[in-house]
Amino acid sequence: MSKKSWFSNLKCRECGRLYEKEAIHICEFDFGPLEAAYDYEAIRGVLTREVIESRPKSMWRYRELLPIDGDPTVGTQVGFTPLVKSDRLAKKLGIRELWIKNDTVNYPTLSFKDRVVSVALSRARELGFEVVACASTGNLANSVAANAAAAGLKSYVLIPANLEQGKILGSLVYGTNVIGINGPYDQVNRLCSEIAGKYGWGFVNVNLRPYYAEGSKSMGFEIAEQSGWQLPRHTVVPMASGSLLTKIHKAYKEFVDLGLVEVSDFAIHGAQATGCSPISTAFKRATEMVRPVQNPETIAKSLAIGTPADGYYALRSMKETGGSAEDCTDEEIVEGIKLLAEHAGIFAETAGGVTVACAKKLIETGKIPSNESAVLCITGHGLKTQEAIIGKVGEPRVIGPSLREFEALVADEVAIKS
Amino acid sequence: METTRLWLMYPAKLITRPIIHDLGHKFAVTTNVRQASVTDEIGLVCLELSGERGEIKRSIAWMEDLGVKVEPVEINTIEG
Predict the structure, then answer these.
(1) Is the minimum CB–CB distance between B35 and chain A shorter than 8 Å?
(2) Backbone angles phi, psi at A386, to 5 degrees
(3) How far is A51 from chain B (nearest CA, A)?
(4) Least confident among A44-58, A159-173, A251-265, A294-308
(5) Closest CB to B77 among A189, A304, A351
(6) Which residue of B8, B56, B77 is the best one to mutate when testing the A interface, meaning the one whose CB has the most A CBs within 10 A?
(7) Residue ranges of the alpha helices (H) in A135-261?
């Protein structure tokens, strides 16, 4: 790949002011979020379907549309996860055609966070950071720890001290520095902001956020390419901060603008858990004012962000594309996990259950018409949130080492041929 | 002397109260409003707060006691 950079500036999403490509994330004038801007004219001249198809199957095949200057150095094998057609789940949900974008098998930590972290850490290296950090309750921590370990970067992972043991182990194993912080969420959140401001670290979701967030676009690029260079009519995306949804929207628009896909109607729908649904609630109330949820209560902890930073922008994306928002209860989330596992053979974490359950409602209510086609974004593996389904998927039936006992057990279930 | 950047979210019952004025009188901090949006349902103010670290901490605690939600300007530094 060429060393030329197509990534030109950081740009305020509110006022449009341009900034140098440094480790900054908000506009000094209005505190609006900064995001990456590109030289699209130059990209148009070099990035074709053929060029992309000739490259290795990773998220970096869209390298010109990702915010680094040189070649990627961290997470070079991340992405290009399967887009799976599931006729059985389509039939179950009552839609003509259904596809699953399966990031449960993303490399190396089985969630879409590997996409954002590989961009953030590649950029962190370009900016000269030797220490990287994040504050997380799960998937992001695992991904930063793993990718930093592979890249030889020192890492710190800040977590609320009362986090489940499994999630802590999933970071500790990579040799990262895990620091548990006691206290209410708001105070932990502010402390993390202070630490990010005070130490000269590359904080992936704070001072490296403009780079980090752009990594999510690769999911949208892959969906379009794997759909045969077309945009799906409907895409259902889980929402925590709302960032993934806005970036999939940006990815689709970039592909249209660059002529890589035909112009066609597409709708992007957002999915949340009812126990923490500030964006979906605002959408249903037809307001752009996202009211904070003080005490999120849902088993979908990876989506439980009460004050979503990109909520306003996610609302705008859904409105602009003719999409809609939906939310679902904890029971419906478990049902969604089971539907996906039993009909598509994919074991998703609770956020995946949210996506499936909300898609089901959107189809039932006609917001996704049953004679059309949809893609569901499944963002993390079920092994990460096993506690959510323990006791809800049945138990094994135990017998002695006897053929007679086995035959008695299955006598009503199968026709045994001698 | 430190500077911190915060989003303040006021519930409807506090919208009529001059909280930022009071803040500047009760504590030795300088306030600088950078962006704001107030409706009859909620008030959102982006505030730059400068002063000694202890005064900033006490200012934040006072606002929270009143019922104002105080977030860092990043809003969420903790992700899933």
Answers:
(1) yes
(2) -60, -30
(3) 35
(4) A159-173
(5) A189
(6) B77
(7) 139-151, 165-172, 185-198, 209-214, 217-226, 243-257
Reading the block at residue A97, the tokens are: 């055609």
A31 touching chain B per CB within 8 A: yes
Query: Measured between alpha carbons, how far is A363 from B49 in angstroms, rounded to an integer?
Result: 48
Put simply, the answer to whether A291 touches B71 (Cβ < 8 Å) is: no
Look up the domain containing B59 and give its range. 2-72
If DSSP states are collapsed to H, E and C, what string results for A4-53?
CCCEEEEEECCCCCEECCCCCCECCCCCCEEEEEECHHHHHHHCCHHHHH
Q: Residue A98: CA atoms inside 13 Å, Cβ hemisphere, count?
A: 27
- For the segment B33-48, what is each residue's pLDDT rounded down to a tens digit? 998 988 888 888 999 9
Q: Residues in chain B with pLDDT < 50?
A: none
pLDDT for residue A416: 57
Burial class (CB within 10 angstroms; exposed 0-12, middle 13-18, buried 19+) of A414: exposed
| Structural domains present in chain A | 7-59 (no CATH), 83-109+216-388 (3.40.50.1100), 113-212 (3.40.50.1100)
The answer to whether residue B80 sits within a structural domain is: no
Q: Is residue B42 part of a domain?
A: yes
Q: Are A114 and A134 in contact (CB under 8 A)?
A: no
**Considering the domain boundaries, does residue B79 fall inside one?**
no
Whether chain A has a CB inside 8 Å of the CB on B20: the answer is no
Interface test with A, best of B34, B49, B76 (most A CBs within 10 A): B76
**Is any Cβ of chain A less than 8 angstroms from the Cβ of B64?**
yes
For chain B, how many structural domains are there in total?
Answer: 1
Q: Taking CB atoms and an 8 Å cutoff, what residues of chain B touch A351?
A: 80
* Total Cβ atoms within 10 A of residue A371: 7
What are the φ and ψ backbone dihedral angles of A385, each rounded to 5 degrees? -130, 45
pLDDT tens-digit readout, A221-253:
999 999 999 999 999 999 999 999 999 999 999
Which residues in B lie closer than 8 A to residue A31 (C-beta atoms)? Answer: 5, 34-35, 46, 73
Task: Compute the distance between CA of residue A363 and CA of residue A29 in angstroms, rounded to an integer.
Answer: 43
CATH code for the domain of B22: 3.30.70.260
Q: Which residue has the tokens 């341009």?
A: A18
Contact at CB, B79 and A241, closer than 8 angstroms: yes
A186–B69 CB contact, under 8 Å: yes
Chain A residues touching residue B57 (CB < 8 angstroms): none
A135 at the B interface (CB within 8 A)? yes
State the Cα angle at A326 between A324 and A327, rounded to 5°. Answer: 160
Whether B78 is in a domain gets the answer no
CB atoms within 10 A of CB A142: 27
Largest CA-CA distance found in chain A, in angstroms, rounded:
80
Q: Do B78 and A138 touch (CB under 8 A)?
A: no
